[in-house]
Amino acid sequence: MDYILLIEDDTDLAAGLLFTFQEEGFKTLHAACAAEARASFKNKFDLVVLDIMLPDGNGYDLCKEIRAFSDVPILFLTSCDDEANTITALDGGGDDYVTKPFKLDVLLSRIRAHLRRRNTQPPQAPFCGGVRLDDAQGRAFAAEQDLRLTLTEYRLLSLLTRNAGLILKRGQLLDALWDGKGDFVDDNTLSVHIRHLREKLSTAGSGVSIRTVRGLGYRLEEHAT
């Protein structure tokens, strides 16, 4: 049974989500504030649903704390619907961003997609431009330096690596990353993940780069030696 940590200070919303998650077969623990969330970190969760505005802190800081010891998928669920908050959340290690008010079926679909991806070991990824992917652990290395990718960033790099040199359209990437539910993803979510991945590849001095092909999509290119 998948175990979800729900960090939400709105008691009415939390009660409704707890009931729904349990009806869907998920084991769920609710934390109403940052302190309760930190106290629960000793448990091993399969997914975290995280609000930004909390009475004793914020979701951004909690996300970074979780990322320091876990690659568990983190889905932000918040009323902060502007682009700046979306970028901050994803840059801080979040995998997805859903704004309130939301459609319950869409939220559940995205939760199930993240859990399926986490529970399904992908096929062996190739070695490209000095970048090595470890599918068993969901980790990527450049010059043997751990890139410390989030789960979504790893999936994105894995997909680009398998198709190195080929143009992948934005729609293809969204469909692959979110199980055909790309139309539910905020328009800038993919761009933020691409930018974050580029920064990590560049900082590590990898032998590859992600090129934007205007009007088409993205292509992973190996640097000339």
TrEMBL record:
CDD domains: REC_OmpR (cd17574), trans_reg_C (cd00383)
InterPro entries found in the cross-reference section: CheY-like_superfamily, OmpR/PhoB-type_DNA-bd, Sig_transdc_resp-reg_receiver, WalR-like, WH-like_DNA-bd_sf
GO molecular function: phosphorelay response regulator activity; transcription cis-regulatory region binding
Residues annotated as domain OmpR/PhoB-type: 122-222
Modified residues (4-aspartylphosphate): D51
DNA-binding region: 122-222
Positions of the Response regulatory domain: 3-115
Keywords for the protein's UniProt record, in alphabetical order: DNA-binding, Phosphoprotein, Transcription, Transcription regulation
A single GO BP: regulation of DNA-templated transcription
Entry annotated with the keyword tRNA-binding: no
Gene Ontology terms: cellular component: cytosol; protein-DNA complex
Summary of the function given for this chain in its UniProt record: May play the central regulatory role in sporulation. It may be an element of the effector pathway responsible for the activation of sporulation genes in response to nutritional stress. Spo0A may act in concert with spo0H (a sigma factor) to control the expression of some genes that are critical to the sporulation process.
Protein name: Stage 0 sporulation protein A homolog
Organism annotation: Ethanoligenens harbinense (strain DSM 18485 / JCM 12961 / CGMCC 1.5033 / YUAN-3)
